[in-house]
Amino acid sequence: EKQLVESGGGLVQAGGSLRLSCVASGFRFDDYAIGWFRQSPGNEREFVAAIRHSGLTTYYATFAKGRFTISRDNAKNTVYLQMGGLKPEDTGVYYCAAQDGGATMKAENYEYWGQGTQVTVSS
């Protein structure tokens, strides 16, 4: 059973921080790039950040640069998204996803998806 489980979402005030976790099971985690995506009501799912299988290369959406950090611990089959300086527009459901190719911003290239974790940023 291939599975991704997100956690760490919640309610936070603007300017605050959260760390999301994505725990994988059922596949060779260190062969897969992991991406974070988010979706808010009325908007399409959008790319947030991605990390290659080794953890040596990362990619960020423009809105995430300087505020969010993606990292992975392959020994724990876990990817993290550290979010700081949160803004109300960061509110949404955050998903992690896995693909066995290179890191990409395209959701269509990801094979496995978690169920998401809600992030709500109040003003």
Structure write-up:
The chain is mostly beta strands. The chain is built from no helices and eleven strands. The chain has strands at about 5, 10-15, 20-25, 35-40, 45-50, 60, 70-75, 80-85, 90-100, 110-115, 115-120. The strands form two sheets. Strands 2, 4, 5, 6, 9, 10 and 11 form a seven-stranded mixed β-sheet that branches. A hairpin with a 6-residue loop joins strand 4 (about 35-40) and strand 5 (about 45-50). The radius of gyration is 13 Å and the shape is globular.
- Average pLDDT confidence is 96
Order of helices and strands: EEEEEEEEEEE
Mass-distribution shape: globular
- Counting DSSP E segments of at least 2 residues, the number of strands comes to 11
* N-to-C span: 40 Å
* Helix proportion range: under 10%
Number of helices: 0
Strand fraction equals: over 45%
Task: Describe the sheet with the most strands.
Answer: 7 strands, mixed
Poorly predicted residue ranges? none
Computed Rg: 13 Å
Structural class: mainly beta
Describe the structure concisely for a colleague:
With 123 residues, the chain is mainly β. It has strands at 3-7, 10-13, 18-25, 33-39, 46-51, 58-60, 68-73, 78-83, 92-99, 112-113, 117-122.
